[in-house]
Write a structure and sequence with these properties.
The protein is mainly α. The chain contains six helices and two strands; from the N terminus they run ααααββαα. 74% of the residues lie in helices and 2% in strands. A two-stranded antiparallel ribbon has the order 1-2.
Length: 174
């Protein structure tokens, strides 16, 4: 059982690192797109029509991937002050409740985003010529990752295991 858990933790660590890298690439891509839009507008006097919708797409991706990594690395919102003030046993119970709420949120976000994507798939995003449901794919993937990472943290808490950061030095940034 412990070896299966360790393999799953490694897989989720790789998934978290990949999500973090994709979020970073998305942020750089969004910055380059906005930079090109400003240059084209004020220097070339020809604003590209694709820049704003692409920026919004990239923003959705890096925000939700980053939020999922934040759940795994415990950078999400929580009642840390209260948790630290309580006795250790009550603090763990509060952390478990917090993780259960995050797990439920991730599942609900993914579920309802799938419903929205199905309902809007036949529409088209103007200029990008993508299906309308494409807007909800970051929400679906972000929700699934949030749920997975919250479940991982919950299992670690129940097993009394120390969480290992996916990226070296992430804990030092907190």
């Amino acid at each position: 059982m412990a070896s299966v858990l360790n393999v799953l933790r490694r897989i989720l660590g790789v998934l978290s690192t990949g999500a973090l890298w994709l979020a970073g690439i998305g942020m750089v891509g969004m910055t380059a797109t906005v930079g090109w839009q400003v240059f084209a507008r004020y220097v070339l006097n020809d604003t590209p029509s694709w820049a704003e919708p692409l920026t919004l797409q990239l923003m959705g991706w890096f925000i939700l991937l980053g939020a999922a990594v934040g759940v795994r690395e415990s950078f999400h919102l929580g009642l840390d002050l209260l948790q630290q003030a309580l006795p250790a046993a009550l603090g763990r119970v509060l952390e478990a409740v917090n993780l259960l709420l995050i797990l439920g949120f991730g599942i609900a976000m993914a579920w309802y985003s799938v419903q929205l994507a199905i309902g809007t798939w036949t529409a088209t995003i103007p200029v990008l010529d993508l299906p309308g449901g494409f807007d909800f794919i970051p929400l679906i993937i972000g929700g699934v990752l949030i749920a997975l990472f919250a479940a991982e943290r919950l299992v670690e808490l129940a097993a009394g295991l120390e969480h290992e950061a996916a990226v070296d030095g992430v804990r030092e940034l907190a």
